[in-house]
Design a protein that fits this description.
By secondary structure, this protein is mainly α. It is built from 2 helices and no strands. The protein has helices at 2-17, 22-67.
Length: 68
């Protein structure tokens, strides 16, 4: 969430320095921040899924080795 807010302000600043109107800057920055938020959320969920899967697999392998 914090990264999306930072992306909003960075995109708004770039738009202002490019000479766009404030409404255009705001709309583009908002759209970019929403897309950035969605991308970060998907990436975080994917990474967590991979890590949890790896931890479960490791734990299962340890338990199977202990049973032998």
């Amino acid at each position: 969430m914090i990264l999306a807010v930072a992306a909003f302000f960075v995109m708004a600043a770039v738009g202002i320095f490019s000479g766009l109107t404030p409404a255009t800057c705001c709309w583009r920055a908002f759209s970019g921040a929403v897309l950035f938020y969605i991308a970060v959320t998907i990436a975080a969920r994917s990474i967590l899924s991979i890590l949890i899967s790896s931890m479960v697999k490791s734990k299962m392998n340890k338990e199977t080795e202990d049973d032998l």
